[in-house]
Amino acid sequence: MAWAITVHKSQGLTFDRAIIDVGQAFADGQVYVALSRLRSLEGLILRAKINSRAISTDEQVVAFVKSNNNPSQLVALMKERQRQFIKQLLDKTFNFATIVKEVRYLQEENPETGFTENSMKPILTQVCEALEKEQSNTAKFRRQLIDLVSSNNAETLLDRIRKGSDYYKNQLWQQLKILLHHIEVMKNQKRVKTYLNHLIDIDQLLTKKLEEVDKASYLIEAILANSEKFEFNSLSQKRTIERNTLLTEIRKGVATQTPLTSKKKPSKGKTKRENGKSTYDLTLELLSAGLSVEQIAKERDLAIGTIESHLAKAVAENKLSIFKFMSEDAVKKISEALKELPENSTSKDLYDKLKGEFGYGHLKAVMAYKKFKL
What we know:
The protein is mainly α. The chain has three domains: 53 residues, no CATH class; 181 residues; 101 residues, Arc Repressor Mutant, subunit A (Orthogonal Bundle), CATH 1.10.10. It is extended, with a radius of gyration of 32 Å. Helix 5 packs antiparallel against helix 8. It has 16 helices and four strands. 21% of the residues are buried.
């Protein structure tokens, strides 16, 4: 059993025996490809003599090898790449912009959630303001570290990273403590599942950032010492113990407190319930009475975004037609943008896609509408 095949088609194949004719090979590397198909010389039969002119190598490959094969420069090149990696690591580690952005987004989604009985300021606002307050100093700190990397001042660099890491770890633990306490309190509340999930997302971001800061000095010190092993288990175990200890204290404190719902003072506007009706039901009643979203917000002394979130919830529960408060053009435009996003995209992804043209209430309403239609 035998068959004919071109050298081009033989790439990737392996043979025990082959009769090869490459006397008139015309492409760079063609002879090599043909001969290297055999497992051994015993199975090779040449049908024609291979002339030297048939053997050629791509000039670009030869030029690349000549220009890049510089063993004497390898050590210096590796050092430069290490410095570049350390700069990128520092720039990412000591930067809280992503966390601030996520917290701000959650605030927009839940403008009336997160007050404590002893504070007039929402928990998320407290966390966000604390992180934003550090942004200017953190930017200066990053620049100082990167300058030290560029000047090869390893001793001063490591000293600054250690001190900075201790400072920022303390800041992150303080905010994490506030957030974890809030999460434990919200677990006892009703109808806050989505909000609680968002809080857990913020918890994960803070925890991840704490891990990055915790590992920075250790990792950079190991790189500068040319260490081949990186052991982070002890750092991870210490963080786990500290977190578990903190959670235990928080849970004990929350368990001994009176539920916040019984202590919370009513706002200057409408209370959460009037005549036994929830704020959600009151919004739907006013819409049915012919009031616009803006009029309802003014009447109830609430943010427009809050009213829109009530209506989006009604759409999701099939209690309200989306066209009662949104135009067909708006629904169509949002729907078309939604089609262009991946299947599991969030309202934030849709908000970014539309460049903030519509509020989150409208976006969530359309997402619920499209899901219900399916």
